[in-house]
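1st attempt posting a full record on here, be nice pls
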Amino acid sequence: MKVLALDIGAGTEDVLLYDERKKRIENCIKMVLPSPSQVFAKKVRAATQMHRNLFVKGDIIGGGPFTEALREHIEKGYRVFMTKAAAYTVRNDLDQVKELGIKIVENATLKSFKGQTLVTEEVNIRKLQCALAFFDESFTDTDFVAIAVQDHGVPPKGESNRRFRIEKTRQLLERNPKPETFAFLGDDIPPHYLRMRSAAYASKRQLPNAEVVVMDTSQDAIVGCLRDPVVERANPILAVNVGNNHTMAAIISNGEITAIMEHHTRLLSPKKLEHLLIKFADGKLSDDEVFMDNGHGVIFLTEPPGFSKMERTVVAGPNRNILASANLPVHFATPAGDVMMTGPVGLVEVTKRILAKRRMLP
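the predicted structure (as tokens):
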């Protein structure tokens, strides 16, 4: 099996070309690249310096730095036009996009436009293939493209996107508490996950013969933590991904996720995160408490065993150092010997599980 795993975050795009014929995952190709959001933010700032209006079309990509650069562009007096599809990059609610001063247009061609056109692209398989061609590496025999992006989903009008995200997480876990419940095959992505669907479509457009698996970046990192050699045999586990935007913690017992907590990283100090994790593992943290603190919420499927009963607390994510000074016995995950591969390793793991389940079916 050959899997191209792309973990696309706010800061970096982490790439693992997993090929089981290489025997050891350490021998597989790994890359850490600037995220598409960072790349296109840089293009926007260049347009600002050149005093040019912008027309943005293409795929949905991560907002983050790109959205901030667009906001600064408008504040300096320049105009931004976006196609409806591309505008979902900025917000899932297009009325909010318009409130930022962005003009949404229906057509991918803007007549009489004088300025710079940006074609957004989140899944960049063709560019990766060109980069690796010198090393005689081909993607034509790739079986799966596994992609992780952060996707809140589009809530009904007037509903909190934080409530919506945690509720959809709850529904998935109640259906199946195994970690692979968070992964979707290309044709099975729910319609409210617009960014995931856009990523899957972009992948099939570029590599039509490969199947597509998509999941959220917070969740693939949790799965990747489980593949750390120090953690694999531990039970129960508290796994924490401290991302650029979101921090997600999960209790995994006997291979099943029994509890989830999600908050916004920017609101967490080392002391506060330490307090939340202990309270969460002890079963004393409420959903409303996290939500009222501008986080997402908490899910308990079963009563947690308590923090003192956790055999391992494993931590990953670009902001994992928040917990370096905390008074907790944490292990920093390094699956495949590389902390930056936690997300891609998680993607490979869920792809293997999906394939194994398929082979068991009559």
